[in-house]
Specification:
Strand content: 5-15%
Strand order of the largest sheet: 3-2-1-4-5-6
Distance between the termini: 27 Å
Largest sheet: 6 strands, parallel
Radius of gyration: 25 Å
Number of helices: 17
Number of strands: 11
Shape: elongated
Length: about 400
C-alpha cells in the first residue's frame, strides 16, 4: 500500500487528540484527502475504538484509523503535554474532542498553542460547544441527537423514539468539523492566521433538521414520529414483495404518472385523490395500501425491472453482501480491499467524495500497535533520538 503524500490535502499536518468517534472520524476525513494525520493515544491503553465493533472481530478501528500515524503520549503528565505542544507547534490543524476545559487544564489552551503557532486551526468537537451554560456537561452523540431534534421524530408513532444503527450525531459533528477546518484553511491562505472551529454535537444535528423549527414558529406544526413515511410525501415508502421489501419514491407528479403506467393503472394519475402532491399527501395511507397490494404480486427482481423501465426512483434495501456483489459499487470502487497482515484484506468504504484531479485514497492501513510510529514522528518532527525515546517510554511518557 502506498504511503506517498497524495490528495488535495497533501502537505497538511494534522494532530488528532481525543478518542472514540467524533474526533477520530474528523481525522479520518482529513487523512482520506491526503493530510498527514498524527494520532496521539495514551500509552498502554490507546483509543477505545481499537476494540469497538460487532461480529467476531473489532474492525471499526481499521476504518476510522486508516491513513494515520500513531504515537503514544501521556497527556496527563507535564512531559507528555510538553511533547504534544511541540508537535502541535509544527501542525496545521489540531483535532480534539475532550470535554471543554480539558485542554486548558493541561496547559494546552488555544491561546497558548496559537501564540506558538499563529496559523494553527483547532477543531474542537464537543457535546454542547465551547460556550453557553451547558458547555461543561458531558455529552455523547446520542445526547446531541436528542437535543438537536433527531431522536424525537425517528421511529413509529406508537413506540418510544428509535435511533439509527450508526452513530450519526458523532459523524455529523465530525463532518462539520472537517468542513470548518477546510474553510479555516482558506482563510489562513488569505491572512496567515488560524482560528478555532467549534463543532457542537447538538448543533451538527440541528443543521440537518430541515424546516423543523420554522414550521413550528410559523404555524405551530410539530413534527412527530411517522415510521417509514414522511407525512404528506406520497408515495414514498417501503413496499412488500413476494421475497422481501423494496423502496419506491414516486412523490413527484410526473414520476407518479409513470408509476401508475407501470402498475397498469394510468387512471390513478388523474384520480382527484392522487392528482397532485397535496392530494396524495392527504390520502397517503390508502395510496400506500393500493401500491402495496400490487407490489405483493411481484418479486423484488420483477419490480425493480419495471421501475427501471418506467424511470421511477426505486431501489433494494442493501445489506453488506448486496453492496459487495453490486456492479455499480464495483464500477465506482465504492468498496475497496485494504491489505492487512492478520485479516489478509479488510473490505471497507472507499474515500468519498470523489475528486477528479486530486482524488483522496487509502494510503496507509490503521496502526496496528499503540505508538507504532513513535520513532518516525518524534524523530522526524522533534529530532528525538533512540536514547531519548527509550527514556520517555521507560517513564510512561510515551
Amino acid at each position: 500500500m502506498s504511503v506517498d503524500a497524495t490528495g488535495p490535502l497533501a502537505g497538511i499536518k494534522v494532530v488528532e487528540m481525543g478518542q472514540l468517534i467524533a474526533g477520530p472520524f474528523c481525522g479520518q476525513l482529513l487523512g482520506d484527502m491526503g493530510a498527514d494525520v498524527i494520532k496521539l493515544e495514551p500509552p498502554g491503553q490507546g483509543d477505545p475504538m481499537r476494540v469497538w465493533g460487532r461480529g467476531d472481530f473489532p474492525l471499526w478501528w481499521e476504518v476510522v484509523a486508516r491513513n494515520k500515524r500513531a504515537v503514544s503520549c501521556n497527556l496527563r503528565e507535564a512531559e507528555g503535554q510538553a511533547l504534544a505542544r511541540r508537535l502541535i507547534a509544527k501542525a496545521d490543524i489540531l483535532i480534539e474532542n475532550f470535554r471543554p476545559g480539558t485542554l486548558e487544564k493541561w496547559g494546552l489552551s488555544p491561546d497558548v498553542l496559537m501564540a506558538e503557532n499563529p496559523g494553527l486551526i483547532i477543531v474542537r468537537v464537543s457535546g454542547y460547544g465551547q460556550s453557553g451554560p451547558y458547555s461543561a456537561r458531558a455529552g455523547f452523540g446520542g445526547i446531541g441527537e436528542a437535543m438537536g431534534g433527531w431522536r424525537a421524530i425517528v421511529g413509529d408513532p406508537d413506540r418510544p423514539p428509535s435511533r439509527m444503527g450508526v452513530s450519526i450525531g458523532d459523524s455529523l459533528a465530525a463532518t462539520y468539523g472537517a468542513l470548518g477546518a477546510l474553510a479555516a484553511l482558506n482563510h489562513r491562505h488569505m491572512t496567515g492566521k488560524g482560528q478555532i472551529v467549534d463543532s457542537a454535537l447538538y448543533e451538527a444535528v440541528l443543521q440537518v433538521m430541515e424546516s423543523l423549527v420554522p414550521e413550528y414558529v410559523a404555524s405551530g406544526y410539530v413534527r412527530e414520529r411517522s415510521g417509514s413515511v414522511l407525512p404528506g410525501i406520497a408515495p414514498s415508502n417501503v413496499y412488500p414483495c413476494k421475497d422481501g421489501e423494496y423502496l419506491i419514491g414516486a412523490n413527484q407528479d410526473t414520476v407518479f404518472g409513470r408509476l401508475c403506467d407501470a402498475m397498469g393503472r394510468p387512471e390513478l394519475a388523474k384520480d382527484p385523490r392522487y392528482v397532485n402532491h397535496v392530494a396524495r399527501g392527504k390520502h397517503q395511507k390508502e395510496l400506500d395500501t393500493l401500491i402495496g397490494e400490487w407490489t405483493r404480486t411481484l418479486t423484488i427482481a420483477e419490480l425493480e425491472a419495471k421501475m427501471i423501465d418506467a424511470g421511477v426512483p426505486a431501489g433494494k434495501l442493501y445489506r453488506p453482501q448486496d453492496m459487495l456483489d453490486d456492479p455499480h459499487f464495483q464500477a465506482r470502487e465504492a468498496i475497496i480491499g485494504v491489505p492487512h497482515p492478520r485479516w489478509g484484506e479488510v473490505k471497507m468504504q472507499n474515500v468519498f467524495p470523489k475528486l477528479s484531479a486530486t482524488p483522496g485514497n487509502v494510503r496507509r492501513r490503521a496502526p496496528e500497535t499503540i505508538g507504532q510510529d513513535n520513532d518516525a514522528v518524534y524523530g522526524e518532527m522533534l529530532g528525538l533520538d533512540e536514547a531519548a525515546l527509550a527514556d520517555l517510554k521507560a517513564r510512561n511518557i510515551i
